[in-house]
Amino acid sequence: MHCALYTAGTCRSCQWLDTPYSQQLADKQRDLHSLLEGLPVGEWREPVTGPESAFRNKAKMVVSGSVERPLLGMLHRDGTPVDLCECPLYPARFPAVFSVLKTFIARAGLTPYNVARKRGELKFLLLTESQKDGGMMLRFVLRSEAKLAQLRAALPWLQQQLPQLTVISANIQPVHMAILEGDTEIPLTDVQRLEEEFNHVPLFIRPQSFFQTNPQVAERLYATARDWVRERGNIASMWDLFCGVGGFGLHCATPDMKLTGIEISAEAIACAKESASRLGLKNVEFQALDSTGFATGKGEVPDLVLVNPPRRGIGKTLCDYLSQMAPDTILYSSCNAQTMAKDLALLPGYAIARVQLFDMFPHTAHYEVMALLTREI
């Protein structure tokens, strides 16, 4: 992948861009082998890859510059802004949208937030695109509600210019820290969820729900989880912990399976419930709860537990409880192989039947991994 920003030295977010992609994969696979050294693995599957460019469905753009000439991109540690509108990680449709948004910022009088001076209103623009129909979700992250009336008044022009903006909202983030968004979300359109579809499974993205940023590889990750679960035979009950919008559980569910999905985000749970309803699944329950608290408070033992935790992993408390509860199968999907390796070491009653790397983040050291664990008799 060629990137003029990288060549010019203005952005080095893709730290491995100078490394041939085949070597990137080899290095990631070697890192994963090293992390799991001492934990016998029955089968190593070949890494799953996707496009090397234009694969991101979401842009998180810091807004800087002036209201007349805004910049969309990032800030270096010294405060120097970098415009990333031409970043090759984004789909080809994004640059034209960014151009219109720059004009809109000036028309609406949304003063970019100045970090050094702690002044201004518009902090970030968050843009997400659905690969299903090209619909987009746009979120304005503001310091306060001071410019909200101006934003609302100017929106008809923006919607006329960009009819693909299905969902628009304003998020209020008043804290002077590097925090992407706040708790308050103000809808600016009647529709407040973006529709997506992976492997004929309908999924929904709401403003404050997490969704994978590499849809091509995520689609294969969910399909692989589905295949591995079905290979285990008749799974009557399954827990999907840290379930997000339900992607894993909804792919794995069958009409006869009892599926329980747990996620702390109420927005994500609303998405999962809508997907389950669209699929006609009746024996499904999604709840907005802490996954560890839910699991350790239950007496029942499902046939299979799927965990997809944040970067911190599932931790000792949940590992100890899973060992005690002893479901026949654990499927562990991780965005941080280091914490996954620590967790797997805390599950001594299980054999690692299979491991596979999913390269969600080309040109960086990050990757996703999934491991199938079976209870040793």
TrEMBL record:
PROSITE patterns: SAM_MT_RNA_M5U, TRMA_1, TRMA_2. Its EC number is 2.1.1.189. It is an enzyme of class 2 (transferase). It comes from Rahnella sikkimica. S-adenosyl-L-methionine binds at Q212, F242, E263, N308. The active site is at C335. It catalyses: uridine(747) in 23S rRNA + S-adenosyl-L-methionine = 5-methyluridine(747) in 23S rRNA + S-adenosyl-L-homocysteine + H(+). One of its GO terms (biological process) is rRNA base methylation. This is 23S rRNA (uracil(747)-C(5))-methyltransferase RlmC. Catalyzes the formation of 5-methyl-uridine at position 747 (m5U747) in 23S rRNA. It comes from the Bacteria. Pfam families: tRNA_U5-meth_tr (PF05958). Transmembrane segments: none annotated. Belongs to the class I-like SAM-binding methyltransferase superfamily. RNA M5U methyltransferase family. RlmC subfamily. [4Fe-4S] cluster binds at C3, C11, C14, C87. GO terms for molecular function: 4 iron, 4 sulfur cluster binding; iron ion binding; rRNA (uridine-C5-)-methyltransferase activity. Keywords: 4Fe-4S, Iron, Iron-sulfur, Metal-binding, Methyltransferase, rRNA processing, S-adenosyl-L-methionine, Transferase. SUPFAM superfamilies: S-adenosyl-L-methionine-dependent methyltransferases.
